[in-house]
Amino acid sequence: MNRNFIFVLISLVTLFSIVNAITQFKECVEFPSAELLTVKLTPDPIKPGEQEFEVSVKLNYTITPATIINFDVVDQVNPKLLASYFMDLCSQTDCPVNPGTTFSTTHKFTLPAKLPSKYFIRVYHYLVTPGVLGPFSCAIAIVGS
Questions:
Q1: pLDDT tens digits along 36-69
Q2: Which residues contact 97 (CB under 8 A, 6 or more apart)?
Q3: May I ask which residue range the UniProt record assigns to the signal sequence (predicted)?
Q4: Among residues 43, 105, 123, 142, which one has the fewest Cβ atoms lying within 10 Å of its Cβ?
Q5: Contacts of 32 (CB under 8 A, 6+ apart)
Q6: CA–CA separation, 60 vs 136, rounded Å?
Q7: What is the DSSP secondary structure assignment for residue 89, as one 8-state letter?
């Protein structure tokens, strides 16, 4: 009896964890020198419609005017951009923001009403200037199966 109860309890916890999976953002392997951004979503798991992204990073670079935060949502099966959002970070804070500072911002934008079965979300900071070859920081989450 006791074993059955424990088995049922573990099964329910596992099922609840799978159903309410939290979106996991990881390093962008295509940009190995980029700092990893911490990204939290509301709602999570992701749903079509308005999505809130809380993004933070301990800076190893300076945020100056023309430092952009960018969000891309890309269909992974039929590679195409589904949604994109960007903003100059200095529009939300006094610049410059110096290295060593933990910098956080919150952004809302609308995801498409219909999302494919497998897609990814990439979030990154970059400087819009000639000669900059990749983002300063980046995070990516692969969603779906």
A1: 999 999 999 888 999 999 999 999 999 999 999 9
A2: 59, 62, 63, 89, 103
A3: 1-21
A4: 43
A5: none
A6: 8
A7: G
